[in-house]
Structure formats: structure tokens, C-alpha cells
Amino acid sequence: MGQLLLVRHGQASFGADDYDQLSELGQRQSIRLGQYLQQTAVHQSPAKSLAFDAVYMGSLKRHRQTWEGIAQGAKLHMTPQVWPELNEYDSHALIETVHPEPLAKPDSPEMYKHHFRLLRTALQKWMTGETQPKGMPLYADFVAGIQAVLQHVKEHHKGQVLIVSSGGPISTAVGQVLGAPADTTIELNLRIRNTALTEFVFTPKRHMLLSYNNLPHLDSAEHHSWITYA
To answer: Which helix (H) or strand (E) holds 165?
Structure first.
């Protein structure tokens, strides 16, 4: 039975001109995750170090930067395979379908809440086909892309596989494995934390959810302030 680890990227630059860039904290989160994964592998089998059959990631900068941090922390030397199907949806394009006017930068708790209320509504309308955000695929095609990645893992691997992606694709993968309604993936997505681990076990026939949205690498009091969502 194989194991699939899905990692959401580290903290990005929410509210900045370029969101697709890890913050300094996001880089530290990623390195810390790599250290944890290596330490856990050695603890479980002192004669071995961490190894993955393969690493897959989206093509966004924050995916690559998160992988680089993991690799640095774990002392891994692998070249990930890039799958654009693992890219996040375009939140700006989504929000424009329900709020065409430009939004002020979210610089207060109320503005953050307003942003995510709009995002929730926009996701619901995209999922039901009520709107089609500019430059984005149909929701059915977005889901099909995630299904294709999961199918590829089942067909080509038997050991441990790592995926570095974003909250949308990871929550969609969980929803597909559980057979959950589309609305459920919104709730999963809006709760997922930066560098959180989601674990599947898989056979050639199916994936099974083992855990979701865990931060074992940030469990200590020393790292509690590193926990972020955006």
C-alpha cells in the first residue's frame, strides 16, 4: 500500500501586489516541514533516510519555493515533476464575478473577512456553473485535472509520493476521495493551513484519506506562532 502526502504551500504574500511569493515566514515553515519529515523517517527506521518515489507540484512560484524549503530542510536532491493541474484557482478572477469593482487591500480583520465572504460566494457560483471566471477552466475540468493526478499516482507508484500544491486542489482531492459534495470542498479549503500535511494511503484501485490539515512540524510551543492560513 502506497502513501501520498499532500502539502499546502507555505505562507504566501496575501494583500501584496504579488501573492505568488512565499513570505519569510513561509520559507521557514517549509524548511521546518522538511526537517520534520527527515527526522520522522530516521526515527522510524534509523538505517534509512527520507525518500520519495516521486515529487509532484504545480507550476506556481509558491509551490516551487515551498518544495525548495522542504528539500533544504530534509536534505533532499530530487527534481519534482510539474503538473499545472495542481495549480490553484484564480481568486481575483473568481471575486470579480461577484464584485466587479476593485477591492481595497485587506489591511484589517473586517477587510479579510469581507474578502473571504466574497470568495466563498464566488466559489459556489463557479461550482454550480452560474458564473465562469475569466481565464479559468470550467469547474468540472478543474476537478478532472485533480482526478488525473490521483489516477497517475495510483497507476505509477507503490511507495511514498509527495505533492506540493494549494488549498483548492488539495481540498478538491479530499472531496473526491470522500465522495463529498462540491460545497464541502469550500469549507475544507477555507480551513487549510500553510504547509499543512494531508495523507492518503492508496492501492492500484483507490485512495483512502488518512489525515487532513495536520501541522505536526509546528506542534511545539516554539513554533505555535508560525501557524498561518493565507
So the answer is: strand 160-165
**Rounded Cα gap, residues 52 and 60, in angstroms:** 21
Domain that holds residue 6: 2-88+138-226
In 3D, which of 89, 80, 11, 18 has the Cα closest to residue 52? 80
- Same domain for 193 and 157: yes
pLDDT in tens, 152-193: 999 999 999 999 999 999 999 999 999 999 999 999 999 999
How far is CA 222 from each of CA 32, 217, 227, rounded to the nearest angstrom?
Answer: 12, 11, 11
pTM of the prediction?
Answer: 0.94
97 phi/psi in degrees, rounded to 5:
-70, -20
The total number of structural domains that make up the chain: 2
- Written as nine digits, the cell of 40 is 520522522
- Asked if residue 7 and residue 39 are part of one domain, the reply reads yes
pLDDT digits (tens, 9 = 90+) for 51-80: 899 999 999 999 999 999 999 999 999 999
Q: Is residue 114 domain-shared with residue 96, that is, in the same domain?
A: yes
Sheet order of strands, 54-57 included: 81-82, 54-57, 160-165, 2-8, 197-202, 207-214
Are residues 214 and 176 part of one domain? yes
DSSP β-ladder status, 54-57 and 160-165: parallel
The verdict on 142 and 117 lying in the same domain is no
Q: Cα–Cα distance between 45 and 164 in angstroms, integer?
A: 24
125 and 177 assigned to the same domain:
no
